Structure formats: C-alpha cells, structure tokens
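INFO  loader      accepted 1 record
INFO  loader      residues=290
INFO  predictor   begin
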Amino acid sequence: MNEALKELLDLLDLEQIELDIFRGRSPEERIQRVFGGQVAAQALVAAGRTVPKDRNVHSLHAYFIRPGDPSIPIVYNVERVRDGRSFTTRRVVAVQHGKAIFTMSASFHIHEEGVHHQAAVMPQVQAPETLPTFQSRMLELVGDDSQWKEWLARPRPVDARYVSPLTWEAYKDPSLRSAENNVWFRYDADLPDDPLLHVVLAAYASDFTLVDTVLLAHGLAWGASNVSGASLDHAMWFHRPFRADEWLLYAQESPWSGGARGLARGQMFTSSGDLAVSVVQECMIRVADS
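INFO  predictor   done
INFO  writer      dumping tokens
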C-alpha cells in the first residue's frame, strides 16, 4: 500500500467530537480548495457511522455550496432524518468558518430479495493491464516541464488507466474530442472487507473525471486552456456489492453543456460486466477570453 492510499484511509477515519458530529481534515498539500470527492467521501463516512451495520448505502445526493479550505478541519453534522423498518435516511452538512460548504442526503437499505434486470452493457474496451498509467501518459505530454513532473511524481491513492484520450491530448489534437470518457480505476492494495469503505472509496474516485468528460468534448484542459470549473451537485446510486481494490470501468458521457454549466453521467462496471454504480453530476465550466 503506497503512502497516498494510507493517507487517504487516515483522512476517512473521522474524529467523533460529539454525538452525530464528526471532524475531518485535508491532505497537507498546497491546493486552493478541498477536492470535492474527499468531502463527499468523508460526509458518507459520517453518515455511515450513525447507521446500523446491516444497512448499506444505496444512494446519495449532494450539493457543493462553497469551496473548502484545506488549511482547517471540516466539521460534519449528521441529522437522523428517518429510521424505518427497511430504509434509513441521513442528512449531512459540512461546515467551515461557520458556514455550510457541502450538504448531502444519503439513504441506507437492508438487504432484500427482488426482481433483477440490467439493461446497461459495459463498453468493449481494452483491458486495464494493457494500458499505461495516467502518470506515464501525462509525462509524454508535458515533456521537460519541471512543475508538471513534480506533480506527476507524487504517489496517488487511485490507479487510473484511461481508455479514452486525456483532455490534454484532445487539447493538442481536435480530432480526439469526444463526449465519452472511459477510465479503469482501482485502489492498488488489499482493502478490508468493509462494504461502506468500498462505497466511500468509489465516491471519492467518482469526482476525478466527470468534469473532464465535459472538457473533453470541447478540447479544453486544466492548465492549458483559460478554463475554470467546479462540481455543483453530485448523485450516486449503488446497485450491488463491489470491491474498490478490483478494477472498475468508469464509463462516462456528457450529454449537454451550456450556460457555463455541463452535465456528465457515469456508470461503474465490474470487470465481469456487472453494473455496480450510477453517477450524475452537474458542473460549472467557465472559459475566459484569451
């Protein structure tokens, strides 16, 4: 297990400071704002700490309200909205400087048998083992840029293998622009058999590439275009058990953008083709004049 994954697991082990009140911190990095996937993952941990072990999260709906300040802790207040016979509902508000920066509603469900179908079909793509890592592809693009090389040399908790072009590749070659974005990912370590942990880690990873899917359609790239963006809201549905330490294909598409906003949808498939998670996100996209 690399140091980045150890750090992430430590960040997800929230401190309980009062009944239904938890405190989390951010990585010690020079970043302007807290990564949205981190806030969503920590909020889900907080909610899960207040729910019986026999109930697994099946959906979450979240809003990113203000940029998070990585220099101070985040306080997560959990409201016990409902404890029913089959479903449990929690609302979480993340607070910094006395103001809400993020809100999330999460629903948990006992295991029940029922009818089953899957209309979604996993895209036929290259196996992850045949693809280069994200870092190696980016190193080819940035060349001798020492600032980028330093950033790419940092260990990462998630091993991501892009089937689709990177946004930087589409920025340099307009023929690569696409509204579809397929990415394999996994956490490269043997993780505990805790269903909530695997769901939380999927929530963390789900925010990495959805905004990129909107950028990819227009040949925009962070650091290369005069573009700024942020996640606005985020929804996830967890359909079946899965492991985040095994390869998941994140098949994403952007059906629309306009008015400084973009919509992206994603489906996470296990390597055997089972649909495990569905994701929808709206993001802000602003392009400044050159």
